[in-house]
Every structure is written in C-alpha cells, then in structure tokens.
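Batch manifest, entry 17 of 40.
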Amino acid sequence: LEIIPNSVRLWQEAVELESADDAKIMLSRAVECVNNVDLWLALAKLEVYKKAKAVLNRARQANPTEPMIWIAAAQLEEANQNFTSVESIVAKAVKTMAGNQVAREQWLGYAEGAEKAGHLVTCKQIVAASVALDLEDSEKKHTWIADAEKCLAHECVETARAIYAHALKEFAHKKGLWLRAAHLEKQYGNPQKLDELLKEAVKYCPQAEILWLMAAKESWNMGDVAKARNILGEAFKANPNSEAVWLAAVKLESENKETERARLLLQKAREQAGTTRIWMKSAKLERQLGESTKEREILEEAIIKFGATDEKANIEGLSTVAKLWLMLLQSERRRLINEQKQDKSKGATPQDIIANNKARFDQIRHTYTKAYKSCGQSLHVWLEAAGIEENVCKDIVKARAIIEKAKLRNGSQPLLWLHSIRMEHRSGNEQLAKMHLCKALQEFPSSGLLWAEAIEMEPAATKKAKSVQAIKRCDKDARVICAVAKLFWAERKFDKTRSWFGRAVALDSDLGDAWANLYRFEVQHGDEEKQQKVIASTLEAEPHHGELWCSVSKDPEYCTVGGCSLSPTEILKKVAQKVDMSTYAMQ
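Output type: structure tokens
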C-alpha cells in the first residue's frame, strides 16, 4: 500500500484482515488515497448514524453522479426512521442524475435491489421518483404494466406494488389497472390490503361491475356476509340494471341458506333487469328448492317473453334461450318419470303406464317440437327430445326420426351419430349400431369422439387393433388417448397406463373425464402421494368438460343458483366412480 496507494484491491484485502475499529481507521485513509465508491460505502456501514451521514456527504461531494451513494444515504435515513428525508434524498438524486444517462430501467433495478435488501421505503420512493422518466403520456400505462410484470418475474412484489400505486394515481379511472393491482394483492398480499384496494377501486370506477363483485366475494370469503351484502347494495346504486350484480346477490343469499331473500331478489331482477339469464337462474332456484311447478311456470313465461331465439350458438353449444327450452324439457321429463314410478309402485304394467300417459306424451311431444323449431341449431335440444322418446315414451322409432330430422336441419354431426349409435346399442340392435359407426367414421374419419367410441365398442380381443387405427387418425385427441390408456390398464401395463393418461390430460387439461380416469387408476394401483398429486393437478386445471364430468357437475341434484354445490375434488371422486372398465375385460 505504501508503494501502490491507489490500488482498490489491496485496500479491500487489507481491510478484511482488520477488526471493525481498525478497519474504520484504514478505510478513512483509503478514501483519502483513492476515490472509490465501494470503499466509501464500506466506511459508511461501519460508522454510527451521524458519522455515516457525514461520510456519505463527503462521498457524494467526491462522486456527485454516483447513484449508489445517494441510495445508501436514503437507506441510512430509512434505517433511522427518517422517512421524510428518504423522499427528499431520492427525489434530489433522480433530479441530479437526470442529465447523466441513468436510465429509468436502471432506477427500477436499484428499487428492486433496495427491496431485496429490506429497504422498502427507499424502494417505493425510487419508483415514485423515476418510473415516469423519459415516457410520453401515451406510453405510460402499457410501459408501467410491463414494468410491474417484469418485477413480479424477479420476485420483487413491493416494487411491482409501488409501480401500480403510481400508475393508479395517474390513471385512476382505468378498470384494467385496478384489476391487475387487485390480482397482485390477492396473490401476494393479504385480505386487508386487497379490501382497501378494492374500496378505492370502486370509488374511481363505480361502473366496473367486476370490481364490486371482487370486493363482495372477498368479504364473503372472509366470513363477513353482512359486509358483502352492503357492498352489493352499493353496487346496485351504481349499476341499477346489472345482471352480474343481481346474480351475485342471489348467489350470496342462496349459498347462505337465505332462500326467501334469494327468491325476492330474483323476482325484482326479473322486473328490473329481466335478462334471459336471470329468468334461467330463477327457474334453477325453484328446482333447487324442489318447487317443480313454479320452475315450469317461470320457464314457460320466460319462453313466451323472449320468443324465438336471436342468440347465436355453436353447433354443439347452447344459447341462453336454448337452455330455457332444455330446462323445460328436462323438467317435464322428470315429472313424467316420477309419475311412471308411482304407477309402477301401484302394480301397473309397462303397457298400462304407456296407455295411461298417452295424453301426457302428446303434450311433451308438442313441447319438444316447439323447442327444436325455436332452437333448431342446438343439438342438445334435439338429443333431449330423442331421449324423451326413447326413455320416457318408449318409442324408439320416433327417437330415430328425431335424430334424422336433426341431421337434416344441422347437417350430419359426430355428436348426432354418437347418440344414434348408442341408442341402437341400448336397444340391442348391435348390427345396426356397428353399421352406424362405420358410416360415421367414413363421414368423419378424424373425429376423436367417434374413434373413442369405436374403441369402447370393440370386443376386448380386437381393441388393440382398433386403437392402432384410431391413433393413426387422431393422435392428438385426448379422448382417444384416454381410451388407449384404459386398454393398457386392462392389460396391467401400469407404467404405460400412467404415461398415456398423463398424455391425455396434457393434450386437453379441460377434459374432466381424463382426470377422473387417471384418479381412478391411481386409487386402484397408485399410492396416496400420487392420488393427491392428481387432485392438485385437477384443481389447477379447473376442468369443465367431458361427458362423465358434466353428468355430475350439471346434475340437478347438485346444481344450485351459484353453480355446482360440490367442490372440484368431490366432483372428481364421483366421476371416478363412474369410470367403466367392463368393456375392456377379456372374456
């Protein structure tokens, strides 16, 4: 050091050999010999508050354009609870550096560093002072959103929170920003912070229904039903005819067993908002309460009110009006089945039951004819009508005719072929079922729906050959992959089974049937850890589709105004119990 007094490396090595007191003396000499930021900062860290402040002032005079010295000074003030000084130091630093090419991104990097060091006030002040540097007004919103997402990717939540806080001061009426900030609090904050944020959000964006609904839901989740009611009451004032707010209020009352409140709310909603969805939910509530007569009255009134549908639906989807018709048909079907059960309990023969219910059959046929004339694009309405003929009226000929009419109206569709095949199979017409399947696959050679059914229908001895054909045609269809996995399951090739079920859920994570098959397999041949892993993955995927899955999640027994009363785990377990392996067993 006597020979090379300006060597930073030598000074650092020498300081490390000394005790704290001797290190201070040596660093005091070091900064006199060489003006190095690291040495200045090391000396400030060893000093008490007042002396550290003096050291940093000297360092700042020697290095006026070095941001780390200013940040160290701010962190020193924060450590000593002088928060006002932190703000002034950071603001002065950013102003001083404005002409010295310290970019906005660098300042945000320093903010992240301050957060990681535990200096949250300094972090927030750096963001507040620098986040708008060199930005045009038109760039600000999208740039700040990108900055916040980048900070979250770096696990710097406070920096992201500070960016959103600054953005919301400038764009207080932007619903999207409030939503992003709310999702941040939901994921990384606590219920109190989220509640406070949403209170502010609805002040500035009173017409943003989603913010009111989030606020009400969070209060409900915290167990404060009264507060949730008050929030929805305020939401009504701001959005008097909002369907979403009405239905949220109904769900709140229904889920808390306040059925009369829910019924009154729906009655008011039908008078004031009067959308098809509100009428549908009204019917669902009556069905939930076992009031089948009221349910039918509401559905009939809704159908008269809205008339022919003007809503467009996909060929396999449902418009809201089509759902009303479908619910009415299902209600009539349940009523007829119950009446037939009563007749049977009194000793009536099947022939007597059919003869006694002829007038009722004519009535329900009139209803479903009006339904498919009104909603002819909805395949589910046609299939419900065919199901009524097959299962209630016991007239397979009329059921076939309805499916043929549906084909003429909508063109030939895989779903229609599938139901036609299954109907013949249930009726014992195996040759006709196979003939329909061959025709269907000729018309739709890449339909995973039909190939999966072909594997299921094939005798166990020839399933493997059929599955090879199916894989060649549609190797990216989760239903086909699932059917092949069941084949390996029957052959007790458990590693392959697990692998193919994993492939199925990866291809279509929304297919609940694939998750249920995998869970059933793990219950039989896996361990508790693997079962829990499947449950966790299912909860993350949130599946909504699949024939078996919907047969449980949309079962009237479990359907409430707010949706399915079962948790996703309960649905998974019930669907798993329905998994059928009987067609795979070797004779």
